[in-house]
Design brief:
8 strands; 12 helices; alpha+beta; 66% helix; two-stranded parallel sheet
């Protein structure tokens, strides 16, 4: 038959393109592989680790900062000293001393001493005149100055606790984002894995339809040869059969596309064949309130709470600008023998600083921080409302898909029975070919709807569990499923 040739051609083409063995994986095996195959999840891990390291770095903000520095300084110093006043004072004091000196000796010697003092006094202007009025001294040198400096915050007005709280909240944001990425990756795996199963089921369904039309066409040709039906009815079946072949070819290509998407998702170059069939639990879900009760643990709620904590830390940082700051400091000159004359050997002390007037409006900054905190709190409350609405919507989608799947059981049985009756009637020449074509189309449509309902159930279930941060429970629902679409093959 023509469809058999198409199958062989498609298979040969797939083997020639890949050149590798397709790996069959159950959903559990694919789930175990998704974390290692997802660069996005790996990136989230790095982001969390980075935020944790930054938060750890802020733990040492209260410790002293010790720094070493070394400087080579070349300098020149000029000193100028005015000697006019001291020189005049010295000359006057000497003159007074010499004038009083003769009276300190006996009368016989006073005349001689007087003559001597007169001669010395006459020489004083010459002696003191040799002394310059200004003394200048200039030196030039190169100094090597190594120093150790220590500074430690004593009180920062709450800035350090605010920074640490903000860093911790940033870690919570990164962790919440990672948890959300984990849930989204699981939903993506469900979409890709069971999407391939949908494509495979549609290929199987369209192949059955094509096989059915091949039988109908063969029967029609036999009836035409026996003169039971005209050639026009044979042409009607031929047209329907060709349409079924086109649908089968399209389903094959879509299955190949879905298989390629799953292989890329799981980083499996050789290709992946999904083994776990589409499933449905005939029992209803637990009440929606069960899923809503854990809303505080969802990544969106946790991320919103962490964003509110960051805004709260911003308020504390803005308040610290109004408060004083105190620091302890010290400096030690490690080369005192080669220090400048004005440099101390060591320095230690405490510094208190308070900003009296700032060029940055601190009040408006504080008001803005408080508004951001209120906005973050409102965003956290809105996030919880949004998550609750999404949980209710997803729960309803799961329940709708479950009921639709179960209701299609009777439709599928009726469509198969109708096709059987129409086939017998057509073979006996009692029913027109259009009735047979319609019956075959009805069966194909019912099977497609059933496949779609099962896929909608699986995907909606994954969405519900991801929204409520219970996505790891998906395998539990899969394990206890009592309806599997592959069982009908």
């Amino acid at each position: 038959m023509r469809y058999a040739a198409l199958v062989c051609a498609t298979t040969a083409q797939a083997q020639s393109q890949s050149g590798q063995t397709v790996k069959a994986l159950s959903f559990d095996a694919a789930l175990a592989r998704i974390d290692d195959a997802s660069p996005g999840l790996s990136g989230e891990d790095h982001a969390v680790r980075a935020s944790e390291l930054i938060a750890g770095a802020t733990r040492s903000l209260r410790r002293p900062v010790v720094s070493a520095s070394a400087s080579v300084i070349e300098y020149q110093k000029t000193l100028s000293v005015d000697l006019t006043g001291p020189k005049d004072n010295a000359q006057n004091a000497t003159t007074d001393f010499l004038s009083q000196l003769p009276g300190q000796f006996p009368a016989g010697l006073q005349q001689i001493v007087g003559q001597v003092t007169q001669r010395v006094g006459a020489a004083l202007p010459t002696i003191f005149g040799a002394i310059p009025d200004t003394l200048q001294y200039q030196t030039r040198d190169t100094v090597f100055r190594p120093a150790i400096t220590v500074a430690m915050p004593l009180y920062t007005g709450g800035a350090i606790p605010a920074i640490q709280a903000g860093a911790d909240a940033a870690v919570d944001v990164a962790r919440a984002k990672k948890a959300g990425g984990h849930d989204v990756s699981r939903v993506g795996l469900v979409r890709g894995y069971f999407g391939q199963q949908v494509a495979a089921q549609l290929t199987h369904s369209t192949r059955e339809t094509l096989e059915g039309f091949d039988r109908h066409l063969s029967d029609a040709k036999k009836l035409e040869q026996n003169g039971v039906i005209p050639h026009a009815r044979v042409l009607q079946v031929q047209v329907a059969r060709d349409a079924a072949e086109r649908a089968y070819v399209r389903a094959q290509l879509e299955e190949a596309t879905a298989a390629d998407a799953l292989a890329r998702l799981l980083d499996q170059p050789g290709g992946v064949n999904a083994l776990t069939p589409l499933f449905v639990n005939s029992a209803p879900l637990p009440p929606v309130s069960v899923f809503i009760d854990g809303i505080d643990a969802t990544p969106r709620a946790r991320g919103a709470d962490a964003a509110r904590d960051i805004a709260r830390a911003g308020v504390g940082l803005a308040k610290s600008r109004y408060r004083p700051q105190a620091f302890a400091f010290g400096s030690y000159n490690a080369n005192r023998d080669n220090a400048l004359p004005t440099e101390p050997d060591w320095v230690a002390g405490v510094s208190l600083r308070y900003t009296l007037l700032s060029n940055f409006d601190r009040k408006k900054s504080l008001d803005a921080a408080r508004e951001q905190e209120r906005a973050a709190a409102d965003a956290a409350a809105q996030a919880r409302k949004d998550v609750a609405s999404e949980i209710v919507r997803a729960w309803n989608l799961v329940e709708t898909a479950r009921r639709s799947f179960l209701l299609l059981d009777s439709n599928l049985a009726a469509a198969r029975e109708n096709l059987r009756v129409q086939r017998v009637s057509f073979f006996e020449g009692e029913a027109p070919s259009s009735s047979l074509v319609d019956a075959e189309a009805t069966l194909a449509s019912t099977q497609t709807q059933r496949i779609a309902a099962a896929y909608e159930y699986d995907l909606a279930l994954a969405g519900l569990l991801a929204t409520s941060h219970r996505v790891d429970d998906f395998t539990t629902y899969l394990a206890r499923a009592d309806r599997r679409l592959g069982d009908e093959k």
